[in-house]
């Protein structure tokens, strides 16, 4: 395999090849995602919801993110691995942000970090980039700020917020970020942002006119079934398939159908 790098992603934007990105939090899933050809694997802080069952992304810790990230790193041959800096590990001051990013890089072996926000975390992003750590930005719906907004509805519908987002995207490019995730914003605005910067824009609920797409793996394979935003396309219904398989197993154990002779020593 030829490894995906931050450089190859920027080249993909230049040549018009769309970038595919999915989350993974563990070795077994990451192995499937990588070998199926996904370009970027995000060890997202959505692990807080998907893996740990929390209502928001806020509770997950840096240590827990490092555990998930190192499990993913052991599985990958090709994809670029990006890890979310969790809530509380970078907002206090730029030095703390750099320390957190260094811990992720050293202790997990991942290739890049992702931080939520624009202007307000400019100094932290600068410091991390100065240390040679690639940074992916994240604008629009930023789930770590859920209590500031109160809802997970579409962001930047108002002119003022849209302008601020465009400015933030240009600032992230200028600082040296290699890509930006845009979450849940109008397709028209996402298109404008993608046209205005030369680094790849990866959308989730940001329409088709961006440079790549990202989804949460467990949502796109239908393992979760209570989360149904418009932007989510389900490729499997694993919640149902797994439930049926497991019920069948329970039944087979109860009726002593399992194990049979050929399954015994
Ligand atoms: O944590 C996550 O899964 C994310 C993606 C939704 C972009 O940040
Ligand atoms: Na995230």
**Radius of gyration over all CA atoms, rounded:** 20 Å
Mean pLDDT level: 98
Number of domains: 1
Low-confidence stretches: none
Strand content: 5-15%
- Give the CATH H-level superfamily: Phosphoenolpyruvate-binding domains
**CATH class group:** Alpha Beta
Q: What small-molecule ligands were found?
A: 3-methyl-2-oxobutanoic acid, sodium ion
What's the tally of helices? 11
Helix content: 40-55%
- Count of DSSP strands: 8
How is the secondary structure organized here?
Blueprint: H1 6-15, E1 19-23, H2 27-35, E2 40-43, H3 47-50, H4 62-73, E3 80-84, H5 94-108, E4 112-114, H6 122-130, E5 135-140, H7 146-149, H8 159-175, E6 179-183, H9 187-196, E7 201-204, E8 212-215, H10 217-220, H11 238-254
The structure holds 3-methyl-2-oxobutanoic acid (KIV) and sodium ion.
The site of 3-methyl-2-oxobutanoic acid has 11 residues, from strand 6.
General description of the model:
With 265 residues, this protein is α/β, with parallel strands linked by helices. The chain has helices at residues 6-15, 27-35, 47-50, 62-73, 94-108, 122-130, 146-149, 159-175, 187-196, 217-220, 238-254; strands spanning 19-23, 40-43, 80-84, 112-114, 135-140, 179-183, 201-204, 212-215. It has one domain (6-220): Phosphoenolpyruvate-binding domains (TIM Barrel, Alpha-Beta Barrel), CATH 3.20.20.60. An eight-stranded parallel barrel has the order 1-2-3-4-5-6-7-8, surrounded by seven helices. Helix 2 (27-35) crosses helix 4 (62-73), helix 4 (62-73) runs parallel beside helix 5 (94-108) and helix 8 runs parallel beside helix 9. The mean pLDDT is 98. The structure holds 3-methyl-2-oxobutanoic acid (KIV) and sodium ion. Sodium ion (NA) binds next to loops. Keywords: Cytoplasm, Magnesium, Metal-binding, Methyltransferase, Pantothenate biosynthesis, Transferase.
